[in-house]
Design a protein that fits this description.
Layout: H1 9-12, H2 15-28, H3 32-42, E1 45-47, E2 50-52, H4 58-66, H5 70-88, E3 91-101, H6 127-140, E4 144-149, H7 158-170, E5 180-184, H8 190-198, E6 204-205, H9 213-219, H10 228-232, H11 234-240, E7 246-249, H12 257-275, E8 281-283, H13 304-317, E9 322-325, H14 331-340, E10 344-346, H15 376-385, E11 389-391, H16 395-398, H17 403-411, H18 415-433, H19 437-451, H20 457-471
Parallel strand pairs: 3-4, 3-10, 3-11, 4-5, 6-7, 7-8, 8-9, 9-10
Antiparallel strand pairs: 1-2
Helix pairs in contact: 2-4, 2-12, 3-5, 4-12, 4-13, 5-13, 6-7, 13-14, 15-19, 18-19, 18-20
The structure holds S-adenosylmethionine (SAM).
């Protein structure tokens, strides 16, 4: 029985509720008055400087996803952009993945790390190798990492992950520092989530891969990840372990996207219903070609247009949740979805274990082929050239603004007095320490212009002073 408050996976991701939702969406996909009503409900409402958004239920959002009316779709895209601007402005947060180990005991059919792959070289970084990777990442300008690892209790036990997090935070090379480590590792116990929390992680990220249980069981035929319930209930254990910021995701292409979309939103509703706070982020990866993986064997690949629509509707349905897109996607696709709601992107990623130290892209241990292969400097220039502010900010979680405290910052319109100056200051750090001359020139013009968009005169003045001090060599100011 569907129950968003239940702690049982089969209840909060209820198969029948998803099927009923899809049927309801089909019945109403041409019901223009209903669609207009849903769009009106999702519109940002301003009260003075405060902005609120109602978001949408999985049923409402599924109706929009089913609708193919061109005029309505135009409205959806415009609304997604409006919501994006209301909550995230023109800032785009930058991060990089760091692959620690590709040892894995699971049998995931889509992942080249699966046990059946006997030819991929298995690599696990030592703490010294992690140090060198982190120095390479800091030398590019990165401040925020997502660590990734296969699941292997012998090679990659939780102690290894915890030690690696300590190592990453301890490296201080020139003006570099990694200030936020997000963690994407397999589902684990409440006890281990507590240890991750104590190690100072940012977001705990775990992709559901697919919400369709039957498909999930087939796609994960062996290993601990086969346990659908344990995997699907992981975020509840993470929150019980004290982690406020959790990141959801679907691996699009494995199963039917409309089913996944409804499941994803039901998962978000469940977290809100049980823990009082929804997901901090949602990722939208698509299955890619990799070592022994041919993405075409999965029947549910989605076009770039459908992908863009999904991004826009996630933005409309869960306005307070950040949306992440990786270098799995090309520059062209990334360009499109940046306007529709994506708030975080990775840059200059290497998806191979140890990949940041080598000049040439090492392919042999890669998890998936990277579409966007530009350098970080090129990505930063490209973002600014389109009018976005690349942000290396990590202030919120370091100031304890996680979970519902972050959400309330979002809702009270304080983001413009807080995230905006923090973005400008961390961008200035990047420009001073790592950028090419061309990028620095463009960035400093952008910062001067954007400084004027800080509403509070006191904050504007303080941000201006901090920026001068950053140019003078000081680092790490934040609001
Ligand atoms: N091993 C961890 C787990 O079990 O969740 C997470 C780490 S894994 C390195 C990160 C994610 O990469 C997976 O959750 C999956 O969604 C994604 N992934 C795996 N194979 C992929 C492929 N061929 N193309 C795109 N993404 C893939």
């Amino acid at each position: 029985m569907y129950d968003p408050k239940s702690l049982k996976a089969d209840d909060f991701i209820d198969h029948k509720e998803i099927l009923d939702t899809l049927a309801y969406a089909d019945e109403n996909k041409d019901n223009i008055p209903l669609i207009e009503e849903i769009l009106a409900k999702a519109k940002p409402v301003w009260q003075g400087k405060e902005v609120h958004c109602a978001g949408l239920s999985h049923r409402e959002a599924s109706v929009l996803l089913a609708c193919e009316d061109p005029a309505m779709m135009k409205k959806m895209y415009a609304l997604a952009e409006e919501i994006k601007l209301a909550f995230y402005g023109n800032r785009i947060v930058i991060f990089a993945p760091l692959y620690l180990s590709n040892y894995c005991v699971n049998g995931c059919l889509y992942c080249p790390y699966h046990t059946v792959n006997k030819t991929i070289p298995r690599v696990k970084l030592s703490q010294e190798e992690i140090r060198r990777q982190v120095i390479a990442l800091q030398d590019m300008g990165h401040k925020r990492l997502a660590i990734e690892s296969g699941e292997d209790p012998v090679h990659n036990p939780i102690e290894y992950i915890l030690e690696s997090i300590d190592t990453i935070y301890s490296v201080k090379h020139k003006n570099g520092a990694i200030r936020r480590v997000n963690v994407n590792i397999a589902a684990t116990t409440v006890e281990n989530y507590k240890r991750l929390k104590d190690a100072g992680i940012g977001t705990y990220i775990l992709f559901q891969e697919t919400y369709h249980k039957e498909a999930y069981l087939k796609l994960h035929p062996t290993g601990p990840k086969h346990d659908y319930d344990y995997h699907t209930e992981a975020m509840d254990r993470a929150m019980e372990g004290g982690i406020d910021d959790v990141g959801l995701g679907v691996l699009f292409g494995l199963d039917r996207y409309r089913y996944e979309f409804a499941g994803l939103l039901m998962h978000a509703e469940h977290l809100e219903a049980v823990h009082g706070v929804g997901p901090h982020t949602i990722s939208v990866p698509r299955v890619k070609r990799a070592d022994d993986i041919d993405p075409d064997i999965f029947d549910n690949g989605i076009s770039d247009e459908t992908f863009a629509k999904l991004c826009a509707l996630i933005r409309i349905a869960v306005p307070y949740t950040g949306m992440i897109i990786s270098t799995r996607e090309s520059q062209k696709v990334r360009e499109k979805v940046l306007h529709l709601g994506v708030s975080q992107i990775s840059g200059a990623s290497r998806t191979s274990v140890g990949g940041y130290e080598t000049e040439e892209r090492p392919h042999d241990t890669e998890q998936f082929d990277v579409s966007d292969q530009r350098t970080l400097d090129e990505v930063i220039y490209w973002l600014m050239d389109m009018g976005f502010i690349p942000s290396f900010c990590t202030a919120c979680y370091r100031a304890g603004r996680t979970g519902d405290r972050f959400m309330s910052l979002c809702k009270t319109g304080q983001i413009q007095n807080c995230c905006h100056p923090n973005a400008l200051m961390t961008l200035q750090e990047y420009l001073s320490d790592y950028a090419s001359e061309k990028t620095r020139a463009l960035g400093e013009t952008l910062i001067r212009k954007e400084l004027e968009n800080i509403p509070n005169p006191g904050v504007r003045k303080a941000a201006g002073d901090y920026l001068t001090r950053i140019v003078g060599g000081e680092r790490d100011f934040r609001f």
